[in-house]
Model the fold of this input.
Amino acid sequence: MNVRDSNARLLTDADVARFPNAAAVELMRAAVLAAESGELSAPARLHAADLTFTAGGTPQVFGFRAYHTRDTPHDDQAVVVWDASGRVRGIVIGGALGPLRTSALGALATQVLADPAAARLGLIGSGTQARAHALAVASVRELEAVTVYSRDPARREALAAELRCAGLPAVSAASAREVCENSNLLTLATNSAAPVIETGWIRPGTHVCTLGPKERNRHEFPADLAGMAALVVTDSPAQLAAYPGGHLFADAPVRSLGACLNDPPVRHAHDITVFLSVGLAGTEVLLADALLGVS
Done:
């Protein structure tokens, strides 16, 4: 490709920040349905040296995302998008597109799996993913309360303050148990290798979303959560099955989010539902393509 003749564009986190959360959720809805029907290719991620790649696409657009696994001060990623003619449409670089995609999938799962009346969001974790998830859920559901806990008191209060500035009724909590007992939408957004909650803390009727580790030997939620759940769902069964060493719920029945969209599950008032967020490949490409179309 002659760069001088190319119409390819370069977008950054500033462009991603302008994309509405609600629009991202609807884009993920279409992507999940496309994956379920086979229109969206979504293979498991590939690891090579210090890089990880996810790829996917539809007949109209395709591409890949690349990110590194080194311990560095910055976690920039790159998403490259081609159109059907084989021309590069553009590249999105930075760290904002991933959390937007992940949070939009989590908000979509909330719409499909949670009690329609559930409006009290609990966050375990106070990082970028927790913030993005709260804002995405708030774009599709009016929240009565948002409660935040992480081990660092300053970080959890800082996130609560930031969410209040965004118009959400957010407060920090003194413990993870307090968050669980005051929430019916519970999100785990940590890097913990050991469970950060106990199943006995979870209220009947709660929808649980886990964004962090899910491996058999490294998981942020307790193993007995599967036995309590009426329904366990993931955005990508292929990605879940490809976990090195196996995922924690490998022996439990797990439905795809796309199947639940096509055939909404019957939910009873006391049912606990669980969403295992693993990252449906190809969704980053479709989201980047949408950004390139509006920025």
Summary: The longest strand covers residues 61-68. DSSP finds ten helices and 16 strands in the chain. The chain has a mean pLDDT of 95.
